[in-house]
Design a protein that fits this description.
The chain has 6 helices and no strands. The protein is elongated, with a radius of gyration of 19 Å. The longest helix has 30 residues, at 7-36. The chain is mostly helical. The protein has helices at residues 7-36, 43-47, 57-79, 87-110, 114-138, 140-166. The protein has a single domain, classed as Ferritin, CATH 1.20.1260.
Length: 181
């Protein structure tokens, strides 16, 4: 039983992992968005003044779909790297940053907590960067698949900060009380 796996066996193993990780991450992202009431159908969000760099609403769904697919493939690559040093740590970091990511929509769109959402997105970026660095030590391709996510997180942080600056009252009508977490 000391034989090495063939290229075909390794490819099949990767595909089995990808068939699980990609839909799993997509479904979690969709659930987070639905739970948080994200998007242009959110009445509170529609009342906010947005920065000029705010893309149309459909862009967010398209971008997050692509990002979650890339993240799922990157995760499958790392999980499939049997015997790689720090593979368990890399996978753990991935799920930690994913948990932070999934908390963002409910915090921003659901609880209307602008500043905490901004700080959370910075934490997501740092956790995702650390994950990417660990992925790069295991499989460079997995790290490169995370780069668009890191870029989008930077853009999302700039958007969030812009919304905060344009809506100092948090988008609440005067006299309204914000929901506290």
């Amino acid at each position: 039983m000391g034989e090495l796996a063939s290229t075909g066996q390794l490819r099949a193993s990767f595909l089995r992992w990808a068939i699980v990780t990609v839909p799993f991450i997509l479904l979690l992202g969709l659930a987070s968005g639905e739970l948080g009431g994200s998007g242009t159908s959110n009445p509170w969000f529609e009342t906010l003044v947005k920065p000029d760099i705010q893309p149309p609403g459909w862009v967010f769904g398209a971008v997050w779909t692509v990002l979650y697919v890339l993240m799922g493939v990157a995760l499958a690559i790392v999980i499939n790297a049997r015997g790689a040093a720090n593979r368990g740590m890399a996978v753990g970091l991935f799920f930690a940053q994913l948990a932070l990511n999934l908390a963002w929509s409910p915090l921003f769109f659901g609880a209307h907590q602008l500043w905490p959402a901004f700080w959370l997105i910075l934490a997501i970026f740092l956790a995702a960067l650390l994950t990417t660095l660990f992925f790069g030590r295991i499989r460079p391709l997995a790290a490169w698949l995370m780069v668009p996510y890191l870029i989008w997180l930077c853009f999302a942080a700039v958007l969030t900060y812009g919304i905060i600056q344009l809506n100092p009252d948090g988008g609440q009508p005067s006299g309204a009380v914000e929901m506290q977490l």
